[in-house]
Amino acid sequence: MPAPIDEEQRQNNLKIKREYRCEKRSSPEELSLEKEQHRQAQARYREKNRLRLNFCSRRYRLEKKHAQQLEQDEEEYQRLMALGDED
């Protein structure tokens, strides 16, 4: 069973991997090619999952809006309760 890796060793391993990747794509042409391929992959993913992405974004916006409305309602309720206690 391998010994657990401490945080410093893990960071060092990540640094070595990052340096290797940077050395591996040495030319600007390779870098631009990788970026273009990544953009194309993102476009394919968005096209394939358009409905799901739209649904998730709508749900996120509605949840945010509802949370904001609940907060305002709670503030209004607390204000009205404070007015009722004064009587």
From TrEMBL:
In its UniProt entry, what is this protein called? BZIP domain-containing protein
- Region called Disordered, residue ranges: 1-44
**Compositionally biased tracts (Basic and acidic residues):** 16-44
